Amino acid sequence: MRSISKKNELSTGRSGSAGFGKKLTKQWQLLLMSVPMLLYVLLFNYGPMWGWITAFQDYKPKKGITGSEFVGLKNFKWLFSRPDFLQSIRNTLGMSVINLVLGTITSILLAILLNEVRHTGFKRVVQTVTYLPHFLSMVIVVGMAQNIFASNGPINQFLTGVGLIKTPIFFLGEGKLFWWLVGIINVWKEVGWNTIIYIAAMTAIDPSLYEAASIDGAGRFAKIRYITLPGIKSTFVILLIMNIGHLMEAGFELQYLLSSSLTIDWAQTIDIFVLKYGISKQQYGVATAAGMFKSIVAIILLFTANTIAKKLDESTLV
Amino acid sequence: MKKVLAAALALTMLAAPVFSVPVKAAEAQEPITLTVFRGDPGDQPAEDNKIYKKIEEEFGVKFEFEFLAGDLDEKLGMMIAGEDYPDLFDGGNSADLIIQNGALINLLDYVSPEKTPRLWAHIEPQLNRIIEKDEDGNDVMYIIPNYGLADGEQIVNQVNGPAFFIQKQVLEWGGYPQIHTLNEYFDLLDRFIEANPTDENGTPYTGFDILCEDWRHFCLINPVQHLMGRPNDGEVLVDINSDDFYTETFIDKPYAKAYYQKLNEQFHKGLISRDTFVMNYDQYIAALSSGTVLGMFDQTWDFNNATFALQDANMYKNTYVALGLVYDPEYVDGKEIEEHYVNGSLPNLRRGFGISVNCECPERIVAMWEEMMSDEWQMLFNWGVEGEDYYVEDGRLMMTEEQYANSLNNNWKLHNKAEAFTQSSPKKQGWIMDGELAGNCWEPANQPEIVFGQMSEYDKAFLSAYGYQKFADFVNPPIELAPYGEAWQIDYTPVDIAHQDFLDIQDKMLPELIMCDPADFDALWDDFVEQITPSATEFGEYMWGAVQAEAAKVLGE
User: Fold this and answer.
1) Under CATH, what is the fold of the domain B162-341+457-555?
2) What is the pTM (predicted TM-score) of this model?
3) How far B88 CA sits from the closest chain A CA (Å)?
4) A259 to chain B: closest CA residue
């Protein structure tokens, strides 16, 4: 974005305080068009931030924001005194990183494979089949996963059948396997969907590059290595930055539905913690404090990733 | 077309007298729609439901039901945060939350001996339990108990609450033995499953299931108090013989260790499957309904749907008998424990409909309840329409086989019963005390002609093999209700967080204890006790005070 705005500055010439007013009047149609969006952001994104004040209150709905007692940083102190909150930060980040790495690798891999397929019919079928699970409700996905990964489910039957293991693996009750289970389910559900954007980026690559490479004697792998991958690099970086901004959101439904008291130490994400102590126990102040903490960490992560990308001289988001 | 119309008209006219049983001339009131929240899952009644139609005709009231989906506390928390309350509000097991957050109005402003004589007569015998003090010391009543205000002698045909359950076929196979202790119970299950590893279809039997999901984890954490010979006090054990109602949490005590060690032993024998700890309620009911689960600790109402499914499939041998187990003397220093699973009847305090502060017509709702406490409406709610859903013979209320089958059919009930409303409303229970129907039961499920007349042949043969009259004969008759009632009803929200920790540690570690290597059991148990002691102490001390306060209310100190 920054590079684009730089170019704009150049093209419009000097921009001083006098020029600013001139520019305003000149671009009034554009400005007018942006007003609804601006209002939207103010109303729905900045407006609710007023509620952050409850993070410093012992908020009681009966008394409202104005009537509730201010307690300073008590809610934050309580949060960080809870071992299970620290655990849920760890779980959130752990599952996010697994989701991010597994998700990115598998979707780029699938995109490349699909890109190499020359048979259009086959390509379309594969694409449709892989992105259909995206539209399934998480409740259904978890229901299926619970059957598939059960002690007497198909995966365990297969593994014991071929003699890889002797006793069935307790996938659903083993805390340490939970993150990976989440990662695998997410890949299954989202890989096709995530592929779409990479495939779009690949179709934007100039075919003459491939032709030139062929003439120079490049094989398939060389073309992937030197043309396809660099061609989707900027898309990859932008998506990566955006995803890093979302690292604090490891998902909610999947963990909520799939976990049990046996796996809760590894399954509880910040969102679930907030629901459990904030909403169920009416500690709305604590819930807000946790949400605020999450947002601040997310902003820091986003800017860090952005700066790193800038240093590497890549296209950036902010 | 005209002919069809005429026929339809004629039919309607024929049906009209049937549909007009307890209609009283009511002053015309403008029709309203009340929003209703039920704190438990349920099904929407059918559009053409005959009882709701009658309520609408009589009172001009329509209902818009919302049933719980997901976690109750979360749902209530969201409603409280937005002050988004329905008119009629049943907070289920967490009504304390909505009361504390000021969501319900004080019904004493509307219910009094003068204004609502029927309702008042209904609650009067238990007033000292029902009326509470609010923060400022005023008398309040937020909810009229939905159950437990029964007329006449307590009816105990079967165990409705907690018990250890066992499939009838297991007892039959074992030669109808008397099973009274933990060891006898598991010993019989062990022997049965060894002799019959699978059912007739080749599906393996599960010996003992433990449901652990969400608030239904009482199947995991509650049994110890019953094994110690007390009825249901939730998560604490009250020493009823002490002067000051000494109350303690039991799960961290040595006598609890014996139970979980026994389960550990059974787990390693293969009687308990580890999948039971990750099972959700639907999967549990499905497992029970398949007839392959031989035993469990639970409460009768919690698996009613499985029982109905088994009865429907004519699998009576796979239905369950409630047993009142106690510890063998070896577990409790040689003490002989007397079993008390069934308690004296008590009002279901703070459970049922309250009227929310958002409701615009509380008088009208209370007036409706008052009218509905009449014998005519109660008959309609409980038994249905005479001639259609039941019949009267020599002053006795009866049902034909078809009517009885209907009354068990969930789909039929959605068209012909108003359960979504009546289950949470004040109601008459027990015996009909006056009028020409005196001596019958308000509820068909208690009516002797139904209980014994409609009993399956298998059940009859089963009971006669034991020489029993009814299934409640497997346990001791009810004991006198303690002055404090039952401690699970006590509002623990003041120690909410400690209580949550207390439960979380149990949810997490009890399954671990059951599954761990027997050699590690002692060490893990010590670890468990150490972890749970702080929250258990805080919760236990609070409960002791609360039990004393409840008892003082009734004893009038």
Assistant:
1) D-Maltodextrin-Binding Protein; domain 2 (3.40.190)
2) 0.85
3) 19
4) B278
